[in-house]
Design brief:
By secondary structure, the protein is an all-alpha fold. It has a domain of 65 residues. The protein is built from six helices and no strands. Helix 4 packs antiparallel against helix 5. It is globular.
């Protein structure tokens, strides 16, 4: 059951986020110092994982900025896929599930703010 939920979350993430500016914004904000510290504490990562995540988040933000400047949805989707695949290889399965939950909740929160 958990594998099915994880698969659905990943499929939803990779298929719809690139065309949504709220999603791109959420992924871009991951390299923000305050957001990064929140994620680091929430996931309980060690120093090595934190360094790798910081690099992935910075690269993701750069790729999303370039995609946005070029108005290229495919590049944006590739940047998000890069993030998800890289983070999955860095974190444990439990930490990755928490990461996906964090991303989903952040996107939901940002979407609600944008609607109001």
């Amino acid at each position: 059951m958990k594998k099915i939920i994880l698969f659905i979350m990943i499929a939803f993430t990779t298929s719809t986020y690139a065309i949504n500016p709220t999603v791109n914004g959420t992924f871009s904000k991951l390299s923000n110092a305050t957001t990064f510290q929140t994620i680091r504490q929430y996931l309980g990562v060690n120093n090595s994982q934190a360094e790798e995540l910081e690099t992935v988040f910075s690269t993701t933000s750069q790729k999303l900025t370039t995609a946005s400047e070029e108005n290229n949805d495919i590049s944006a989707e590739n940047a998000i896929n890069y993030n998800l695949n890289s983070v999955k290889s860095i974190l444990s399965q439990s930490q990755y599930r928490k990461y996906l939950l964090f991303i989903s909740m952040s996107i939901k929160s940002e979407s609600e703010i944008a609607q109001n």
